[in-house]
Amino acid sequence: MKNYYLGREETYKISPQVWTYDLLKPVVNGIQLNFCNTAEEFPFDFNGRTYAESMRLFMCGEWSDNTEEHHRIQNTIIQEQNGWVCYRFVTALNSRQIRRDFPAFQMQWMLFVTWQKCKGNAEFRNLLQSIPQNVTLVLNKTGDHPKTAIVWGARNMERYNQEKNLWKDLASQSEYLPLAERIRIRDREKVKLKNVGEWKGQNNMGKILMICRDCLIEGTEPPINYDLLNRSNIYLFGERLTF
Q1: CA distance 42 to 51
Q2: Considering the chain, what percentage of its residues have pLDDT values greater than 90?
Q3: Which residue from 131, 150, 215, 218 has the highest number of Cβ atoms inside 10 Å of its Cβ?
């Protein structure tokens, strides 16, 4: 397996071997890149509970002290029907209660969570194995807050700024065209920008997916730091996890 360095900032040149994905689930070479952690199509079981999306299990780790408050938040995460609402509003309402030491083990926890998803959902497992090993997966976080965007994904600001300018020019030059027509023209012109810029960021989510992909293809286990996870005393619904 290739070495992937979690936490290290990378620069990815535009290339046919660099595939970017986001919430829009782009299709590349006939494969729909439905890899966002809020994707609802790949439920899986872990430790006696079903998680509708991998983001929910990851979030439970953010509030994983053995306290009544964290038990309450974990139950809210599981019970919320909409995954996107869960991600946005549970985080917003409870951000001050996130474990202070969570950044110390969040990468290994996400790697562990993603591997549980691979083991627990055959459709997701098959999708990830369908990505050739010479392909680099990059989570496109260009439009997100830069502080978190470059941790989990990467940004292409040169392309982003050119696309913004394109829309401004269309708005001023074609103000009498219907909005739908302007959008059609914009989308046509955006294709010309596909080779502009480069991707910069740690891309930890892309790396975690590639680690899991390579392990699935090669029949090996991810290099999860189980000692760190054990020392982190992660409690889910009152039960301390042992790894």
Answers
A1: 9
A2: 78
A3: 131
